[in-house]
Amino acid sequence: FPAFLGVLLARGQAGVPGPTFGTGLAGIPICQAPRVVLNSTLSAGASHGVLHHFWVTGQQHVIDAVWVEYYIDGEKTPSIGFQPAFMCGLAFPNDIKDTDLYQAGAACGKNAAVGGWYNTFPIPFAKSALVTIRNNAAGCSGGYINVRGTENLPVILPGGLPLPATARLQLQVTPWAVRQPLEYINITSLPSGTRGMVFLTGWAVESEPVGGAHAGGGYIEGCWHFYRQHTEPFPGMVVGTGVEDYFDSGYYFGADSGISDGLEFTSSLSGLPFFDRTDTVERISAYRFHAADPLVFTDGGALVWRVGAKGLPGTTKCGNPLPPSGPLPPAPPPVPPPPAPQPQPGPGPHPAPPAPPPERADGCADGTCDAFCDNPNVRGCLATWQTPTSLRTPKTGAKCGGSLGECKAPTDACAPGWEICLGGGSGSTLDGFRVAMTPTECATADPRAFVAGMSHSNPEYQTHSPGPCPPPTHPPDNGCVVSGWGCEPVCCGGGCKVPSCPDMIWPNATRIHIDLAGGCCGKVSPADSVGVLCCKSSPEERPLPAESPQLGRDLTPINFTSYGWVYTW
Q: b/e string for 417-444 if b means 16 or more Cβ within 10 A?
């Protein structure tokens, strides 16, 4: 231990560890109401604490799905809330054998036929830590639980990567839900101004492939995109060229190489603890650690997975450009010496300077295009502003967005000849927007969120029968309101959500932006929107795009869930 401590102190994390704190509770009733397991406050003089051990067992299958929640430093909402089985990448614990034990190294695993779930994830805190447990089902069941931590302990990830003591671990949960073909799903997403790294991904799918489960599903081709800043353009950095590739496996986890049910495996880096096929249903569950392979973001960012893939001319299925073929390019020639000084011309006429190049018509005020660049009439333009702002604030004429900095009005991020879509201008009417943008393109052409200048519905339709949606004769403009039901702005990109009233723009396919503060079109918060949708003021006639060939198997909706564990500092 002294030698180990010396190594830790040499890494710059000062302070002598100790004391250890924690609890072990035997045979406690676990009910739907949260029960406090640990409530610890740092002792005087301690710089920080680190929770580093969790273990639980209890009633068969019930204990696998209890909710364990960590409230760090007085949080009102827990930054970490997990179910023990999926904590370590197993989403279908009811369907494994009693003898199916596994370990992801020392980080997490299952060591008993009933329960026996553990993790050693380092969870730092500055003042206090409160841990609770509650049943996922009605009634109560018995359980056993141990939780431990140590004051002043250096924050070291499995594999040896040190983190600052100010790091905080959070878990972003995507609950089970039906996801559509080619939809982008944020596994993790952090706002601008945030630094940190992805620590662990849990991923699970349940599907009914066309032709039966053994035919496989087209979702398996889906790529993984890591965005190192919240403004990084698509495709970001591709970190997985298919589902199984991200988990360091291959060929459908072995199912395409003669092993019909896939080859389950577990290791300290990644694992496939569950792969099962019946005649019609396929279920897969996997995990991937980034402790030895960090994915670090420096100004917000996201880890995004797509449900399947489609090839586009000139790119891979993941959207990055095809590398050049043929021999390696020749080495560049040596730099020539500078020319000898030349005599300066005497007085007399000089040729006029060349005319400045014409301004690029790429749609965004900084001369670029950030999203939807194949659409001649719609652009996604990165933009931010200082305070909650109406998306219909008139143009000020001050170019902004992207490399130009903050906007006085969101529509200023649009180039001359462009305006914020659905903002009431001549080129951004509802009918024109429906022609300019298809619902599939809106949902899948970019994984981020770009907002338009119109609320997606109107409060008067909240009680509309038979459901809360506008009638077929609704007016073509909902305005850009600051509060009330339906006030959220229309949005395009994988970061947008389908609302309870999904029919305003396209039947069952309208998407909206819901920011962290529940912002409305009339007061969108700057940190919670990537940018704006810009529409051409005089739109071009757009031919219907040719369908790109679909890769491999048929794409169908899937049932999906994920855990995204992230450290921030």
A: ebbbbbbebebbbbebbeebbbbbbbbb
Tell me which of 142-156, 298-312, 542-556 is least confident. 542-556
The model's pLDDT over 454-488, given as tens digits with 9 standing for 90+, comes to 988 876 666 655 566 665 456 678 889 888 888 88
Residues 268 and 291: their CA atoms lie apart, in Å, by 9
Question: Would you give the DSSP letter of residue 325?
Answer: P
- Maximum CA extent, the chain: 100
Whether the bond between 235 and the residue before it is cis, its omega within 30 degrees of 0, is yes
Burial 348-357 (b: 16+ CB within 10 A, else e): eeeeeeeeee
CB crowding 206-232: b at 16 or more within 10 Å, else e: bbebeeebeebbbbbbbbbbbbbebbb
Task: State mean pLDDT over 133-153.
Answer: 96
For residues 220 and 301, the answer to whether their CB atoms sit within 8 Å is no
Residue 267's SS3 state is: coil
d(CA 141, CA 102): 25
- Residue 289, H or E segment: strand 282-289
Query: How many CB atoms sit inside 10 A of residue 22's CB?
Result: 17
Grouping H, G, I as helix, E, B as strand and the rest as coil, residue 273 is: strand
Q: Where are the beta strands (DSSP E) in 401-494?
A: 418-420, 450-455, 489-492
Residue 200 near residue 209, CB atoms below 8 Å? no
5, two tokens: 């401590």
Distance from C-alpha of 4 to C-alpha of 463, rounded to nearest angstrom: 65
Compute the average pLDDT of residues 411-435.
85
Distance CA 513, CA 455 (A): 10
| Element spanning 441, H or E | helix 439-444
Buried b (16+ CB within 10 A) or exposed e, 148-181: bbbbbbbbbbbbebebebebbbbbbebeeeebbb
C-alpha distances (whole Å) from 36 to each of 23, 67, 111, 379 are: 11, 12, 25, 50
Distances, alpha carbon 19 to alpha carbons 149, 232, 255, in Å: 9, 43, 49
548, 484 Cβ separation under 8 angstroms = no
Sequential DSSP letters for 343-384: PPP-SS--PPPPPPPPPP-SSBTTS---B-TT-SSEEEEE--
